[in-house]
Design a protein that fits this description.
The chain is an alpha/beta fold. It has helices at 32-39, 56-66, 86-94, 121-130, 143-152, 172-188, 212-222, 242-252, 258-270, and strands at residues 2-6, 46-50, 72-77, 99-102, 133-136, 158-160, 192-195, 227-229. The chain has an eight-stranded parallel β-sheet with strand order 1-2-3-4-5-6-7-8.
Length: 277
């Protein structure tokens, strides 16, 4: 099994603006060994390490940490996509072993149209040319923008993080906006969608069962060939535990589809080679 979305960090690095003491359980240093300690006993043998700070320094930190660790199959980093030399920077990063994607932190950018500005076109074209996935850390308000982005850059691999972060349980209007936006993306684009990050979008103290409606809808809409499971650990710990989230997700995925959702789709989305026989 592959965990398609997890994090590590060192607080002293100082570029995690969102990671404050108010987030008690996760306001601590997290190393690859800590992830292995929770993922390994669950049968997870590999993972995709995802950025948590909008700096190229953190991307370098992640790539250096991943280099000697065979369990890290890929890294999704960050680059300044608006830099004048962004294409050259992206091409240089793409030559680093294990880099498989880049993630601008769209949810933290006030302007939801930021991703559609013309100044980003050279960087996004470079990502597509280099075979790097675009991880979309978005909320439902961004979904119409992602549809336009996909139309502009049909060769860019788009991976929607955390099912676009719906409010759970949410109201009828929120459900409609979320499902309508994602259904169009599933129907009109080749985007992938991560079955991850849902528990922390639920009401405080909600049991993992509260996610079932949303999880099953995502699985049914994108299908096993375009849906990939991730833990979002250690952020997950704000809501629940790794074994509980994995067990629930496996229960919602049909047995015939588990090889795809828990491994194969992640390999295709990020261009990760097949496991050794």
């Amino acid at each position: 099994m592959i965990d398609a979305h997890f994090h590590i960090w060192q607080l002293a690095r100082g570029d995690y603006g969102w990671l404050t003491p108010a987030l008690g359980p996760i306001h601590r240093d997290v190393a690859l060994a800590d992830w292995r300690a929770v993922a390994g006993p669950c049968g997870v043998q590999g993972g995709v390490l995802v950025q948590a700070a909008p700096t190229e320094a953190e991307t370098d930190f992640l790539l250096r940490a991943a280099a000697p660790c065979p369990e890290v199959l890929g890294v999704v980093g960050w680059a300044d996509l608006l830099a004048p030399d962004a294409p050259a920077r992206i091409e240089a990063l793409a030559r680093r072993p294990k880099l498989r994607g880049l993630r601008p932190m769209l949810q933290d950018i006030a302007d939801p149209d930021w991703v559609l500005q013309d100044a980003l076109r050279p960087a996004l074209a470079a990502m597509a040319r280099c075979g790097l996935a675009f991880d979309a850390l978005v909320q439902p308000r961004h979904l119409p923008r992602l549809l336009r982005l996909a139309a502009r850059h049909p060769d860019l691999v788009l991976v929607i993080d955390h099912g676009a972060k719906p409010a759970i349980p949410g109201d009828a209007a929120g459900w409609a906006a979320w499902t309508d936006g994602l259904a169009r993306l599933a129907r009109e684009t080749a985007a992938f969608c991560k079955l991850s990050g849902l528990w922390t979008e639920a009401a405080a103290g909600a049991p993992v069962e509260a996610l079932e409606r949303h999880a099953r809808w995502l699985l049914g809409t994108f299908g096993p060939a375009r849906c990939l499971w991730g833990s979002d650990w250690p952020v997950l710990e704000l809501a629940g535990r790794y074994p509980a989230w994995l067990a629930a997700a496996r229960g919602w995925v049909a047995p015939a589809d588990r090889a795809a959702v828990f491994e194969g789709t992640a390999r295709r989305a990020y261009g990760i080679g097949a496991a050794a026989p």
